Amino acid sequence: MKETVYGEIKALKPSEKASLEKLTQRRTSAADIIDLDLAKRASQTCNQLNAQLGLLIGRDGRIVSVVLGTKERLYLPDLGRYRLDSARLRSLRLVVFVPDCEKRLEAKPLETSPLRPDNEKIQPEQKVQALTIAQDFIADLEKLRLDALLIVGVKSNGTPGPISLAYLELTELGKNRGGFQRTVKYYYGRDVSDITVNFEDFVSEIEGQFIAATPKSQDTKSGKAILVGAYTSTLAQSQASMEELQELARTAGVGVLEIFVQRRRQLDPKTVIGKGKLEELVLRSLDLGADLLIFDRELSPGQLRAITDSAEMKILDRSMLILDIFSQRAKTKEGRIQVELAQLKYSLPRLTDKDSGLSRLSGGIGGRGPGETKLEISRRRVRDRISFLEKQIEKVASERQIRRQRRQDRGVPVIAIVGYTNAGKSTLLNALTKSDVLAEDKLFATLDTATRRMRFPNEKEVVFVDTVGFIRELPKELVNAFRATLEEVGEADLLVHVVDASDGELEHQIKVVNETLAKLDFGDKPKILVLNKTDLLSVPEVWSLTNSLSALAVSAVTRDGFPELIAEVQTRLLESFKGQDPGRFLEQLSEP
Questions:
Q1: CB neighbours of 386 closer than 8 A, spacing ≥ 6?
Q2: Domains with residue ranges and CATH for the chain
Q3: Cα separation, 478 vs 484, whole angstroms
Q4: Which neighbouring-strand residues pair with 180?
Q5: 337, 485 in Cβ contact below 8 A?
Q6: Are 130 and 189 within 8 A, CB to CB?
């Protein structure tokens, strides 16, 4: 039988528990928030137990659950938070009976309301003695999207007294912000008979307004999100970083419903944006129907736990989003191994008892060890999987080394194309080598290294290697996992560093790529800086950039600048082999 009585019930006598179970067998009219007879019976039970008593009532009038608290507090059972249509209410109302109410009453406004009888005339400034609704109950009303919250004060003689009602209402955000949000509306009365409106119709009308005001669902495969940026940097840097996060979200298939940006002198060490702002964001996500909060920074394991516990919804950081994109776009066996390894290494310190994100990895592996917790088992399984994948990566690295050695034996120079993600590396490779490597206007379109041959005008052959793009704050776990792939860069004779000339952040992107290459010990490699997408700029702009950055200007789309690029590649290859035996190929490389 499904449990229907919750809360502080362990110390109850059998007769007391039986009285609570009897309440679950009763029902009220769907038109009444609660009828007088049920209110009287619940008040008597509340008075006898001297503790707060909560009834969760469905729209059909049936009592779904009875919850017993202490005299001062009442905690609701888990109702499956955030797992329903964002436009609808929970279809449950909570009625709480509070004992010994006479000592807690305060003067509250007695106002005209849709819930009050039409024939009753309320005088201005007229007051009624009622209970103040605790903030914890208001948080439950908003987060759980309850139909309504009714607090019934129980008098010392066990009869129902004054009522305090709270419900959600739709209000406009204002001309500057636009849209709507849910706000809490209050109503105070002398007893339950003060509410004479048909409650079922009342709630249906409110819900209809919510449905009409909720944005239409976007065609997204990975959820709908609010992007969160908290920055101590300059405004320009903050905007550039948030724009990049938006592009990452688009690439991942996430629908962006709203962007939240906060400038702070110092980030909150626990929740990044502060507890109050986090609470506002959670409530805003309910209004918009968002199921994700994505932070534009890497969250520490402690921050991720604290934010998740507070928000009780799915939280991603920038690194998780990048890892998810890599997971979606990895096509080859090698790419999938590298991405899974990176995901596991990133997730291991962030595993908690609540974490179910890696459940697919733990199926079918042994039984539970003696004395091990679920968390310990999860961590052990992840470590075992990491060890297995690292061996697979070593195997991949050795196979790549064999292929590289064969190329070296044949004396074929290797040119690696590197650069920031979405700089046009794959498009440039296709244009130079007349190939058809996947090239999309998305971040990280290339994950698996592509190798293509090209003949110079003098019929001499070189190999171009397209590599994964870099990005600011690229997770170190991802860099380490892709080290076998990036060894192609280390073995290359020349690097072609491709930059999106039309990007306002190009200088910062150049810095990010150079720093990443240095971390991989490839910083001393000879390289050519190439400004791509120059067809999007004016001639004076291109001239200014090429002079200030000592770069070549090309367009992979129009092929402008290709003769100069090819000539420079030939020259730099010859320079890189000075003092060495260049072999027959290089002896002839400079021949017409």
A1: 341, 344, 345, 348
A2: 5-213 (no CATH), 224-325 (3.40.50.11060), 330-393 (no CATH), 410-589 (3.40.50.300)
A3: 11
A4: 172
A5: no
A6: yes
Euclidean distance between CA atoms 98 and 161, whole angstroms: 10
Q: How many CA atoms lie within 13 A of 290 on its CB side?
A: 27
What does the block give as tokens for 503? 């990007």
Which residues lie across from 229 on neighbouring strands? 261
Nearest-5° Cα angle at 539, 538 to 542:
90
| Residues 496, 528 contacting (CB under 8 angstroms) | yes
8 A C-beta contact, residue 203 and residue 148: yes
Burial class for 1, CB neighbours closer than 10 Å (0-12, 13-18, 19+):
exposed
Q: For each of the chain's 592 residues, which pLDDT tens digit applies?
A: 467 899 999 989 999 999 999 999 998 988 999 999 999 999 999 999 999 999 999 999 999 999 999 999 999 887 754 445 556 788 899 999 999 999 999 999 887 777 776 656 777 778 999 999 998 899 888 888 899 999 999 999 999 999 999 999 877 665 555 566 778 899 999 899 888 889 999 998 888 887 777 655 454 566 889 999 999 988 888 888 999 899 889 888 888 988 999 988 899 999 999 988 998 888 888 777 788 999 999 999 999 989 988 887 789 999 889 888 888 877 777 778 888 888 888 888 887 654 443 333 333 333 334 444 667 778 888 899 989 988 887 887 777 677 667 766 666 788 989 999 888 888 898 888 887 765 565 556 555 566 778 877 655 788 888 887 888 777 777 777 666 567 667 778 899 999 999 998 899 999 999 988 888 888 888 999 999 999 999 999 999 999 999 999 999 999 999 999 999 998 888 876 655 554 444 444 444 4
CA dist., res. 199 & res. 197, Å (int): 6
Measure CA 478 to chain center: 19
* The one-letter amino acid at 64: V
Contact 496, 415 (CB under 8 A): yes
